Amino acid sequence: MKAAVITFPGSNCDRDLATAFEKAGADVTRVWHKDTALPEGVDVVGVPGGFSFGDYLRCGAIAARSPIAAAMIRHAERGGYVLGICNGFQVLTETGLLPGALMRNAGLKFICRGVDLRVATADSAFTSDWAAGDVVRFPIAHHDGNYTADPETLARLRGEDRVAFTYLDNPNGSMEDIAGILSANRRVLGLMPHPERAVEEAQGGADGMGLFRALLGGMALV
Amino acid sequence: MKARVHVMLKDGVLDPQGEAVKHALGTLGFSGVEGVRQGKVIELDLAATDRAAAEAEVRQMCEKLLANTVIEKYTVEIA
């Protein structure tokens, strides 16, 4: 599997994400926000956490209009896989690849700690290592993770089984406890918690490895 | 030509920052504040000379970047 991990000015989880993909056996290329194309034959694009462009205007807004984001959107529209974590999730909503928006945490505080998540669906290449209802623990570290969408969008996400993860104890006010969602073709996942920060026991837990393992094993050819 | 864009959260979208400001005003003794909504003002210096064309272009800027129309609404003033 070939993975490309994007770095924007202000990304700070790009190395962790690249390391997690490598640990799962992927061949990883790092790409820069000014690049206009992804490397040939890339299967999955990783959009990392951080504070791209200093969170100016809105979190992820400038990154979503960068040259590499246009290449990522073309990749997704061709049926390619995309994994957006934290700021990466914000970028994906700003591009429109995923619906809704991530607003300031309801408590207004930056929250940095481990949280328990329920795997809401096992029906995706990202979550097939688990059964629906399984509980996993990933760290969160965000100020703007409060998932918001209109009632029609929420109903559609629910009806199409596109909620990937929910919080057991909602830390940020997200509607319906949503921590991560899938695109309609189930090949784009955005989530606020950080699976790439939970890939070794030395990090306090390795639950996140399940996501990367599943992705490598379960990905259909693009 | 100058343009001024006001970006506000849509009605009905909870504004946690506005709520915090309202609470702080209450703490300062301003007891009559019934609601606070916080938004952004963006000022643009434009080379355009045609008012209608400038407004149309700024509206496109709002749709494409300046506002996230999932949660925000905007108004455009050309001065």
Automatic annotation (TrEMBL), chain A:
It catalyses: N(2)-formyl-N(1)-(5-phospho-beta-D-ribosyl)glycinamide + L-glutamine + ATP + H2O = 2-formamido-N(1)-(5-O-phospho-beta-D-ribosyl)acetamidine + L-glutamate + ADP + phosphate + H(+); L-glutamine + H2O = L-glutamate + NH4(+). Keywords: ATP-binding, Cytoplasm, Glutamine amidotransferase, Hydrolase, Ligase, Nucleotide-binding, Purine biosynthesis. Pathway: Purine metabolism; IMP biosynthesis via de novo pathway; 5-amino-1-(5-phospho-D-ribosyl)imidazole from N(2)-formyl-N(1)-(5-phospho-D-ribosyl)glycinamide: step 1/2. Its EC number is 6.3.5.3, 3.5.1.2. Part of the phosphoribosylformylglycinamidine synthase complex involved in the purines biosynthetic pathway. Catalyzes the ATP-dependent conversion of formylglycinamide ribonucleotide (FGAR) and glutamine to yield formylglycinamidine ribonucleotide (FGAM) and glutamate. The FGAM synthase complex is composed of three subunits. PurQ produces an ammonia molecule by converting glutamine to glutamate. PurL transfers the ammonia molecule to FGAR to form FGAM in an ATP-dependent manner. It comes from Cereibacter johrii. It comes from the Bacteria. This is Phosphoribosylformylglycinamidine synthase subunit PurQ. The active site is at 86 (nucleophile), 194, 196. It is found in: Cytoplasm. The keyword Aminoacyl-tRNA synthetase does not apply. It holds the Pfam family GATase_5. Part of the FGAM synthase complex composed of 1 PurL, 1 PurQ and 2 PurS subunits.
UniProtKB/TrEMBL annotation, chain B:
This is Phosphoribosylformylglycinamidine synthase subunit PurS. Belongs to the PurS family. It comes from the Bacteria. Gene3D superfamilies: Phosphoribosylformylglycinamidine synthase subunit PurS (3.30.1280.10). It is found in: Cytoplasm. Part of the FGAM synthase complex composed of 1 PurL, 1 PurQ and 2 PurS subunits. Its main location: cytoplasm. It is an enzyme of class 6 (ligase). It catalyses: N(2)-formyl-N(1)-(5-phospho-beta-D-ribosyl)glycinamide + L-glutamine + ATP + H2O = 2-formamido-N(1)-(5-O-phospho-beta-D-ribosyl)acetamidine + L-glutamate + ADP + phosphate + H(+). Keywords: ATP-binding, Cytoplasm, Ligase, Nucleotide-binding, Purine biosynthesis.
